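Quick check before the chapter quiz. The format below is the same one you will see on the exam, so make sure you can read both the input and the output lines.
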Amino acid sequence: MSMTMNALVLHGVGDLKYEQVEKPAPGPGEVLLQVKACGICSSDIPRIYKTGTYHFPTIPGHEFAGQIVMTGEGADAALLGRRAAVFPLLPCRECEPCAKGQYAQCKHYNYFGSRCDGGFAEYLAVPVWNLVLFDENLDYKTAALCEPSAVSLHAIHVAGQVKGRTVAIVGAGTIAFLIAAFAANQGAKKVIVCGRSQAKLDFARKLGYGVANTSEGSVEEQVKAQLDGEGADIVFECVGKASTAGNAVEACGTFGTVVLVGNPEGDMTFEKNTYWKILRQQITVKGTWNSSYNSEVNDWQDALSLMAENPDAFAALVTQTYPLSEYEAAMACVRDSRQFSLKVMFEI
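Here is the expected output.
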């Protein structure tokens, strides 16, 4: 087996290169994963081109799946050949949230693709604890959607009961479409996707969702027009802008719930009347972060089970694939809002 591998290495803000690097070796309790597919997350774009990672050089990528090709000391040899997605958060296991199994709130965590090397590479050493195994009837590209799927499913859990309730989603990216799918799967009365890309809204309409174009008039009025003059019971904000957070509140009905999902691009402010609406209509605003991954609640296992039930529905969200060597075209595809894309993925 070669001692080197191909990877995308971030040497500085905007300085991403395709090059050969040393192949990692699995340590005690780890396996070597041959990465087969890795999605490009919307959070990877500012990480690569604006803010940087926590140190340089870093191999980005945290949405990946692959095959186990080597085991380290103490790792079960029966894992060889198995397929796995990977929970990318590496908790300290010592802080108070970790003691409660709330690893997403770990105070001293590490993270594949931002704080340490991730999945934009041919191989990665991964602790056995982080492996989420899946069967051969699920392909690697679909399984690589497990990370955004788990995040989306967690947001649904944070929102509470969706069965029989009306749901609006502000945003039309991968997370938004996954939340829409999970809400519909759990029996939402009506699901409305709100976005500015007409191509994505047309795609949402084909999937059976209502739509609202945020660039064409009041989102509140468009949502109410589809809900007998009422706002939505639950609204998910999946963009992370002050304007879209305002739209989410405006689209919400009396005694409704707004769940904030999108990572903020900057300071978040509400207009006075939007804030008044939260007060007067007693709207509940909740935050959600990452996903649950413990013995009691495992959004990853739940997401994989749903994928196995209907793999084609998830596979349809992967709209473009590229080899690692064509990373410039892949990144340009993600960054070009004029081009229709949902999940752009590297096939490795």
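If your answer matched, good. The radius of gyration is 20 Å.
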